[in-house]
Model the fold of this input.
Amino acid sequence: MSAIEIDSLRSLRLRIIPTFAVACLMIQAAAAQQPATPDVLEYKGTVAAAREAEVAPRLDGLLLKINFTAGQLVKKGDLLFEFASKDKELSVAVAQAHLKEAEAQLRLVEVKLKNAQTLRTRNVTSQMQLLEAEAQRDLAAAKADEARANVQLADLALQQTKLYAPISGIIGRPLVNEGAYITKEARDQSRLATIVQLDPIHVVGQAPAAMYFQRGETVPSIEQIAERREFGIVLPNSDKYPHKGRLAAGSYEFDVATQTTQIAVEFPNPDYLLRPGLNVTLQSLIRAK
Done:
Protein backbone atom coordinates (compact mmCIF):
# COMPACT_ATOMS: atom_id res chain seq x y z
CA MET A 1 0.00 0.00 0.00
CA SER A 2 1.38 3.39 -0.97
CA ALA A 3 1.98 6.25 1.41
CA ILE A 4 -0.88 8.19 -0.18
CA GLU A 5 -3.37 5.33 0.46
CA ILE A 6 -2.24 5.00 4.09
CA ASP A 7 -2.78 8.73 4.68
CA SER A 8 -6.28 8.47 3.13
CA LEU A 9 -7.30 5.63 5.51
CA ARG A 10 -6.05 7.54 8.54
CA SER A 11 -8.04 10.59 7.49
CA LEU A 12 -11.20 8.46 7.02
CA ARG A 13 -10.80 6.91 10.47
CA LEU A 14 -10.45 10.29 12.07
CA ARG A 15 -13.71 11.38 10.45
CA ILE A 16 -15.66 8.17 11.32
CA ILE A 17 -14.76 7.90 15.04
CA PRO A 18 -16.16 11.33 16.09
CA THR A 19 -19.26 10.76 13.97
CA PHE A 20 -19.86 7.34 15.63
CA ALA A 21 -19.32 8.80 19.09
CA VAL A 22 -21.84 11.59 18.43
CA ALA A 23 -24.35 9.06 17.15
CA CYS A 24 -23.96 6.95 20.32
CA LEU A 25 -24.49 10.01 22.49
CA MET A 26 -27.62 10.96 20.55
CA ILE A 27 -29.07 7.44 20.96
CA GLN A 28 -28.33 7.48 24.69
CA ALA A 29 -29.91 10.91 25.09
CA ALA A 30 -33.01 9.82 23.20
CA ALA A 31 -33.28 6.69 25.32
CA ALA A 32 -32.98 8.78 28.48
CA GLN A 33 -35.78 11.09 27.31
CA GLN A 34 -38.20 8.22 26.62
CA PRO A 35 -40.17 7.23 29.76
CA ALA A 36 -39.87 3.63 30.86
CA THR A 37 -42.80 1.53 29.72
CA PRO A 38 -44.67 0.34 32.81
CA ASP A 39 -45.11 -3.41 33.29
CA VAL A 40 -48.67 -4.33 32.35
CA LEU A 41 -50.18 -7.54 33.68
CA GLU A 42 -53.21 -9.05 31.97
CA TYR A 43 -55.56 -11.67 33.34
CA LYS A 44 -59.16 -12.78 32.93
CA GLY A 45 -62.01 -10.98 34.61
CA THR A 46 -65.78 -11.27 34.80
CA VAL A 47 -68.17 -8.36 35.19
CA ALA A 48 -70.30 -8.53 38.34
CA ALA A 49 -72.82 -6.23 39.97
CA ALA A 50 -71.27 -3.89 42.51
CA ARG A 51 -74.44 -4.07 44.57
CA GLU A 52 -77.69 -6.04 44.57
CA ALA A 53 -80.88 -5.41 46.48
CA GLU A 54 -83.90 -7.64 46.93
CA VAL A 55 -87.40 -6.26 47.13
CA ALA A 56 -89.26 -8.50 49.59
CA PRO A 57 -92.85 -8.44 50.85
CA ARG A 58 -93.24 -7.19 54.40
CA LEU A 59 -96.83 -8.14 55.20
CA ASP A 60 -99.70 -10.41 54.24
CA GLY A 61 -101.81 -8.90 51.52
CA LEU A 62 -103.20 -8.87 48.01
CA LEU A 63 -100.81 -7.59 45.35
CA LEU A 64 -102.77 -5.09 43.27
CA LYS A 65 -100.24 -3.53 40.92
CA ILE A 66 -96.70 -3.93 39.56
CA ASN A 67 -95.25 -0.63 38.34
CA PHE A 68 -92.26 -1.79 36.27
CA THR A 69 -91.17 -4.17 33.53
CA ALA A 70 -88.22 -6.55 33.48
CA GLY A 71 -84.93 -4.87 32.52
CA GLN A 72 -86.18 -1.39 33.34
CA LEU A 73 -83.85 1.19 34.87
CA VAL A 74 -85.32 2.28 38.19
CA LYS A 75 -84.24 5.06 40.51
CA LYS A 76 -84.01 4.84 44.26
CA GLY A 77 -87.44 5.64 45.67
CA ASP A 78 -89.45 4.59 42.58
CA LEU A 79 -92.76 2.89 43.43
CA LEU A 80 -92.53 -0.79 42.42
CA PHE A 81 -95.38 -2.77 44.08
CA GLU A 82 -98.77 -1.78 45.50
CA PHE A 83 -100.78 -3.98 47.87
CA ALA A 84 -104.40 -3.66 48.93
CA SER A 85 -104.48 -1.11 51.71
CA LYS A 86 -108.11 -0.65 52.78
CA ASP A 87 -107.79 -2.77 55.92
CA LYS A 88 -104.58 -0.97 56.88
CA GLU A 89 -106.26 2.41 56.42
CA LEU A 90 -109.06 1.28 58.76
CA SER A 91 -106.47 0.10 61.30
CA VAL A 92 -104.90 3.56 61.24
CA ALA A 93 -108.29 5.17 61.81
CA VAL A 94 -109.02 2.87 64.78
CA ALA A 95 -105.60 3.53 66.30
CA GLN A 96 -106.04 7.28 65.95
CA ALA A 97 -109.45 7.08 67.63
CA HIS A 98 -107.96 5.15 70.57
CA LEU A 99 -105.24 7.77 70.83
CA LYS A 100 -107.77 10.57 71.03
CA GLU A 101 -109.60 8.69 73.76
CA ALA A 102 -106.40 8.09 75.72
CA GLU A 103 -105.31 11.72 75.42
CA ALA A 104 -108.74 12.90 76.60
CA GLN A 105 -108.54 10.57 79.59
CA LEU A 106 -105.07 11.90 80.36
CA ARG A 107 -106.30 15.49 80.33
CA LEU A 108 -109.15 14.52 82.69
CA VAL A 109 -106.89 12.88 85.29
CA GLU A 110 -104.43 15.79 85.06
CA VAL A 111 -107.28 18.14 86.02
CA LYS A 112 -108.18 15.84 88.91
CA LEU A 113 -104.55 15.72 90.01
CA LYS A 114 -104.28 19.49 89.96
CA ASN A 115 -107.43 19.77 92.01
CA ALA A 116 -106.12 17.19 94.49
CA GLN A 117 -102.88 19.12 94.85
CA THR A 118 -104.79 22.32 95.58
CA LEU A 119 -107.00 20.61 98.16
CA ARG A 120 -103.99 19.01 99.77
CA THR A 121 -102.33 22.40 100.30
CA ARG A 122 -105.49 23.39 102.17
CA ASN A 123 -105.53 20.15 104.16
CA VAL A 124 -108.92 19.31 102.69
CA THR A 125 -107.80 15.91 101.28
CA SER A 126 -105.39 13.32 102.61
CA GLN A 127 -101.92 12.47 101.35
CA MET A 128 -103.29 9.10 100.19
CA GLN A 129 -105.85 10.77 97.95
CA LEU A 130 -103.11 12.87 96.37
CA LEU A 131 -100.98 9.79 95.73
CA GLU A 132 -103.95 8.03 94.13
CA ALA A 133 -104.50 11.01 91.82
CA GLU A 134 -100.84 10.97 90.82
CA ALA A 135 -101.00 7.23 90.10
CA GLN A 136 -104.12 7.72 87.97
CA ARG A 137 -102.28 10.42 86.00
CA ASP A 138 -99.28 8.12 85.44
CA LEU A 139 -101.53 5.29 84.32
CA ALA A 140 -103.36 7.54 81.84
CA ALA A 141 -100.04 8.87 80.51
CA ALA A 142 -98.83 5.30 79.89
CA LYS A 143 -102.03 4.45 78.03
CA ALA A 144 -101.62 7.56 75.89
CA ASP A 145 -98.03 6.53 75.05
CA GLU A 146 -99.26 3.06 74.12
CA ALA A 147 -101.94 4.55 71.89
CA ARG A 148 -99.35 6.73 70.11
CA ALA A 149 -97.18 3.65 69.50
CA ASN A 150 -100.16 1.80 68.07
CA VAL A 151 -100.80 4.67 65.68
CA GLN A 152 -97.18 4.48 64.53
CA LEU A 153 -97.45 0.72 64.03
CA ALA A 154 -100.63 1.14 62.02
CA ASP A 155 -99.03 3.88 59.92
CA LEU A 156 -96.00 1.63 59.29
CA ALA A 157 -98.22 -1.24 58.16
CA LEU A 158 -100.00 1.14 55.80
CA GLN A 159 -96.71 2.39 54.39
CA GLN A 160 -95.60 -1.19 53.74
CA THR A 161 -98.45 -1.71 51.30
CA LYS A 162 -96.26 0.22 48.84
CA LEU A 163 -92.75 -1.02 48.10
CA TYR A 164 -90.13 1.34 46.66
CA ALA A 165 -86.76 0.75 45.02
CA PRO A 166 -84.04 0.69 47.73
CA ILE A 167 -81.27 1.47 45.19
CA SER A 168 -80.93 2.67 41.60
CA GLY A 169 -80.24 0.05 38.94
CA ILE A 170 -81.70 -2.47 36.53
CA ILE A 171 -84.60 -4.47 37.93
CA GLY A 172 -85.25 -8.07 36.96
CA ARG A 173 -88.57 -9.65 36.16
CA PRO A 174 -91.18 -9.70 38.93
CA LEU A 175 -91.34 -13.08 40.61
CA VAL A 176 -95.06 -12.81 41.37
CA ASN A 177 -98.10 -11.76 39.38
CA GLU A 178 -100.69 -9.09 40.06
CA GLY A 179 -103.56 -10.58 42.03
CA ALA A 180 -101.38 -12.90 44.09
CA TYR A 181 -102.04 -13.03 47.82
CA ILE A 182 -98.80 -12.90 49.77
CA THR A 183 -98.87 -15.02 52.94
CA LYS A 184 -96.42 -15.14 55.84
CA GLU A 185 -94.91 -18.33 54.42
CA ALA A 186 -94.34 -16.63 51.08
CA ARG A 187 -92.76 -13.64 52.80
CA ASP A 188 -90.34 -15.89 54.65
CA GLN A 189 -89.29 -17.89 51.58
CA SER A 190 -89.36 -15.58 48.57
CA ARG A 191 -88.68 -12.17 47.15
CA LEU A 192 -90.63 -10.06 44.69
CA ALA A 193 -87.77 -8.75 42.50
CA THR A 194 -84.05 -8.05 42.44
CA ILE A 195 -82.33 -4.77 41.53
CA VAL A 196 -78.75 -4.77 40.25
CA GLN A 197 -76.62 -1.63 40.44
CA LEU A 198 -74.68 -1.12 37.20
CA ASP A 199 -72.93 2.21 37.80
CA PRO A 200 -70.40 1.79 39.20
CA ILE A 201 -69.80 -1.87 38.44
CA HIS A 202 -67.23 -4.46 39.48
CA VAL A 203 -64.93 -6.70 37.49
CA VAL A 204 -63.86 -9.77 39.44
CA GLY A 205 -60.50 -11.18 38.39
CA GLN A 206 -58.03 -13.84 39.44
CA ALA A 207 -54.86 -11.79 39.89
CA PRO A 208 -51.58 -13.67 39.52
CA ALA A 209 -48.97 -13.60 42.24
CA ALA A 210 -46.75 -11.55 39.90
CA MET A 211 -49.09 -8.57 40.43
CA TYR A 212 -48.15 -8.42 44.10
CA PHE A 213 -44.43 -8.85 43.47
CA GLN A 214 -44.21 -6.61 40.42
CA ARG A 215 -40.95 -4.59 40.56
CA GLY A 216 -40.12 -6.35 43.79
CA GLU A 217 -42.62 -4.25 45.77
CA THR A 218 -45.40 -5.41 48.06
CA VAL A 219 -48.21 -3.26 49.45
CA PRO A 220 -49.96 -4.28 52.68
CA SER A 221 -53.41 -2.71 52.32
CA ILE A 222 -56.22 -2.37 49.78
CA GLU A 223 -56.12 1.42 50.13
CA GLN A 224 -52.43 1.62 49.30
CA ILE A 225 -52.81 -0.75 46.36
CA ALA A 226 -55.69 1.36 45.06
CA GLU A 227 -53.50 4.49 45.24
CA ARG A 228 -50.57 2.94 43.40
CA ARG A 229 -52.26 0.73 40.79
CA GLU A 230 -54.30 1.58 37.74
CA PHE A 231 -56.67 -0.87 36.11
CA GLY A 232 -58.07 -1.04 32.61
CA ILE A 233 -60.29 -3.37 30.60
CA VAL A 234 -59.94 -4.92 27.17
CA LEU A 235 -63.40 -5.81 25.84
CA PRO A 236 -64.17 -9.08 24.01
CA ASN A 237 -63.92 -7.25 20.65
CA SER A 238 -60.35 -6.13 21.61
CA ASP A 239 -61.44 -2.50 22.17
CA LYS A 240 -60.17 -0.75 25.29
CA TYR A 241 -62.79 0.33 27.79
CA PRO A 242 -62.60 4.15 28.07
CA HIS A 243 -62.72 4.35 31.88
CA LYS A 244 -60.07 3.42 34.41
CA GLY A 245 -60.81 1.40 37.53
CA ARG A 246 -59.68 1.23 41.14
CA LEU A 247 -59.23 -1.75 43.40
CA ALA A 248 -62.33 -2.17 45.58
CA ALA A 249 -61.71 -5.46 47.38
CA GLY A 250 -59.35 -8.40 47.46
CA SER A 251 -58.95 -11.83 48.98
CA TYR A 252 -56.44 -12.43 51.77
CA GLU A 253 -55.13 -15.69 50.31
CA PHE A 254 -53.89 -17.33 47.10
CA ASP A 255 -55.46 -20.33 45.44
CA VAL A 256 -53.05 -23.21 45.93
CA ALA A 257 -53.62 -24.71 42.47
CA THR A 258 -53.59 -21.55 40.34
CA GLN A 259 -51.46 -19.24 42.52
CA THR A 260 -53.95 -16.44 41.95
CA THR A 261 -56.01 -14.35 44.34
CA GLN A 262 -59.46 -12.93 43.70
CA ILE A 263 -59.84 -9.16 43.43
CA ALA A 264 -62.75 -6.85 42.63
CA VAL A 265 -62.04 -3.70 40.62
CA GLU A 266 -64.63 -0.91 40.47
CA PHE A 267 -65.21 0.88 37.16
CA PRO A 268 -67.50 3.75 36.19
CA ASN A 269 -70.24 2.46 33.90
CA PRO A 270 -72.31 5.52 32.92
CA ASP A 271 -73.52 4.04 29.61
CA TYR A 272 -74.24 0.60 31.13
CA LEU A 273 -71.95 -0.98 28.56
CA LEU A 274 -70.62 -3.48 31.07
CA ARG A 275 -73.18 -6.04 32.19
CA PRO A 276 -72.87 -8.84 34.78
CA GLY A 277 -71.51 -12.08 33.36
CA LEU A 278 -69.43 -10.49 30.57
CA ASN A 279 -65.91 -11.92 30.31
CA VAL A 280 -63.20 -9.29 29.80
CA THR A 281 -59.44 -8.92 30.15
CA LEU A 282 -58.19 -6.95 33.15
CA GLN A 283 -55.04 -4.91 32.81
CA SER A 284 -53.03 -3.82 35.84
CA LEU A 285 -50.07 -1.46 35.97
CA ILE A 286 -48.24 0.55 38.58
CA ARG A 287 -48.85 4.28 38.30
CA ALA A 288 -45.86 6.43 37.53
CA LYS A 289 -44.60 8.28 40.60
Notes: The two ends are 61 Å apart (CA to CA). The longest helix spans residues 86-121. The helical segments are 3-33, 86-121, 127-159, 184-189, 209-212, 222-228.
